[in-house]
Amino acid sequence: MKKIIVVLLLLLSNTIVAQSINDYKYALVPEKFEILRKKKFPRLVTMIKMQMQKYGFETYVTSETLPYDFSNANCNKVYVDLIEENSIFTTKVAVVLKDCKGTVLATSPFGKSREKDLAVAYDQAIREAFNNFSELKNYTYNGKVVIENLPTTVLPTSENVKGNSVSNTVSETHDAISGQLYAQAIPNGYQLVNSEPKIIMKLFKTSAKDFYTAVKGNLQGVLVTKNNEWFFEYYRNDQLISEKVDVKF
After folding, report:
1. How large is the average pLDDT for residues 92-116?
2. How far, in Å, CA of 240 to CA of 37, rounded?
3. Using CB atoms within 10 A as the burial measure, which of 75, 77, 171, 199 is most buried?
4. What is the 3-state secondary structure (H, E, C) of the chain?
5. Nearest to 103 by CA among 204, 200, 203
6. Is the pLDDT at 30 greater than 70, yes or no?
7. Which residue has the higher pLDDT, 24 or 64?
8. Which residues partner with 96 through β-bridges?
């Protein structure tokens, strides 16, 4: 009897810990998918966004202006990705939903197309994958709020406090993380180290090639490229902070 109880408790704990796509309100679609890196099919990106919206996710593309609630946390959204198993005559694509650390939450069956035109083939295969995506069809946001470890030592200043209310105005400041950093591969991403070597930051892959969720100490944000330069971006007191990072991958 004791063994049965232990097994049941273990099964219950695993169920509680396991993440579900129902825990997420938002979805992020990359402007360009890794499997389509040689070609740009903007209509496919729009179609994928519309498919995610159809099933209930509040969805944005990385190139869009993102609302504060969406961009202020990395782990409150699913990241949409595509995988393929193509043959000479067949295009096969599946839709993958991941969390902020790159863990796969759900994967659709492969959709197929035998069209020669790649834009048409990918469109047909991806639509079929969505049509057979049972987890997505059963999606209902459960209202769970993801709480991330944000810095607690920074207090409001006179610049962003008016009376007793905090201004929601978002401005951008530019700082720099000093020194050359070097990327070392870790599961699902990289760690950036200096010459000591000391770990300065950890990066986690998303479905977008040049877009990482990033952790630096108790700060959580994203690492993005602008004009061939890398920037670590995060919010502090409703203000967007953008720190230039000199990193070699």
Report:
1. 93
2. 29
3. 77
4. CHHHHHHHHHHHHHHHHCCCHHHCCEEEECCCEHHHCCCCCHHHHHHHHHHHHHCCCEEEECCCCCCHHHHCCCCCEEEEEEEECCCCCCEEEEEEEECCCCCEEEECCCEEECCCCHHHHHHHHHHHHHHCCHHHHCCCCCCCCCCCCCCCCCCCCCCCEECCEECCCCCEEEEEEEEEEEEEEECCEEEEECCCCCEEEEEEECCECCEEEEEECCEEEEEEEECCEEEEEEEECCEEEEEEEEEEC
5. 204
6. yes
7. 24
8. 81, 107
Angstrom distance (rounded) from CA 97 to CA 105: 6
Residue 105 is encoded by which pair of tokens? 């939450």
User: Helix H segments across the chain?
Assistant: 2-17, 42-54, 68-71, 118-131, 134-137
Sole residue written with tokens 């409703």 = 238
Instruction: Inform me whether the pLDDT recorded for 238 exceeds 90.
Output: no
Classify 89 as helix, strand or coil: coil
Out of 35-44, 151-160, 163-172, 207-216, pick the least confident. Answer: 151-160
Q: 41 phi and psi, to 5 degrees?
A: -120, 80
Helix (H, G, I), strand (E, B) or coil at 167: coil
Let me know how long the chain is: 249
**pLDDT, tens only, 51-66:** 999 999 999 998 888 7
Say what the pTM is: 0.57
Of the CA atoms within 13 Å of residue 159, those in its CB half-sphere come to 8
CA gap 25, 248 in Å, rounded: 35
Contact 201, 232 (CB under 8 A): yes
